[in-house]
Amino acid sequence: MAIDYLIATFIESLKGVPTTLFITFFALIAALPFGLLLAIARLKKIPVLSQLARLYTLIIRGTPLILLILLFYSFVPSFLNAFFKAHDIAVDIFKVNPLFYACTVFLLVAIAAVAEIFRSALLAVDGGQFEAGKVANLSSFHIYARIILPQALVSSLPNLCNLAITLVKATSLVFVMTVKDITAIAKIQASYGYNYAESYLVIFAIYILVCTGIQFVFKKLADYVALDRRILPKKVTRQSVEKDKLEKGVLYAEHP
């Protein structure tokens, strides 16, 4: 096994990491508001929108990713090209950067996944808090923005981390769209001397490093936003301790 080839291919393949991360986090971040809307539509059972959200999630989650990639990279450009020609629109759709198609496909996939993540996270929040917000004369928007969503976000972070890792690994398929990601660059390097085994080891190592980094970032983010899990300050008055225990239904008594 050529060590020099491994090192050179590893360094060259690192150039595809920004593309991989861009596709992943563009899809993930852009999917957050859309996924939230779909989740709320299903939870609130909004007419028409709820059924459309369910149908969209069913179709996207039930379609293989490689099929979506092939459809958007082959069928959609051909369809748009025929449409533009029929209406005398001077646009060469085949000059569009394939990265655009890759981001679109992964965004569609991420929206469906984020919708399910947020739906489960919102269901995990105690429904009594919404009623408490209404008693406090808060609007539904403020209840969700200040009470429900912050708690749902904390509980959804592990699943969002899993989604980010899944998207990173799935980007290995975008070489089909001629996008030069980690896998595409390594395979191009291998084609010169048929060193495919070495290239696959390089791909394996880079994806392990990238996914480990994503897990580290999400762990730090979870530690930062999980304010309710932090230890209370040591300087707590006896009265506040008594009140807290009584509210939890614990009999508290202390004799001098």
Note down, in words, how this protein is organized.
It is a single chain. With 256 residues, this protein is mostly helical. It has one domain: MetI-like (MetI-like fold), CATH 1.10.3720.10. Helix content is 75%, strand content 0%. It contains 10 helices and no strands. The longest helix is centred in the middle third of the chain and has 31 residues. The protein is flat. The termini are far apart.
Report the major sheet.
none
Alpha plus pi helix count = 10
Taking all Cα atoms into account, the compactness measure Rg is 25 Å
- What percent strand? under 5%
State the order of secondary-structure elements, H for helix, E for strand: HHHHHHHHHH
**N- to C-terminal distance:** 77 Å
- Domain count, please report it: 1
Unreliable stretches, pLDDT < 50, 5 or more residues?
231-239, 250-256
**Mean pLDDT, all residues:** 83
The backbone outline, from C-alpha atoms, is: flat
- Percentage of residues assigned to helices: over 70%
- CATH superfamily grouping: MetI-like
Write the CATH fold name. Answer: MetI-like fold
The counted number of beta strands is 0
CATH class: Mainly Alpha
User: Which structural class fits the helix and strand makeup?
Assistant: mainly alpha
CATH architecture: Orthogonal Bundle
Topology of this protein?
Elements: H1 3-13, H2 17-43, H3 49-62, H4 65-86, H5 98-124, H6 128-135, H7 140-170, H8 182-193, H9 196-225, H10 238-247
Helix pairs in contact: 1-8, 1-9, 2-3, 2-5, 2-7, 3-5, 4-5, 5-7, 6-7, 7-9, 8-9
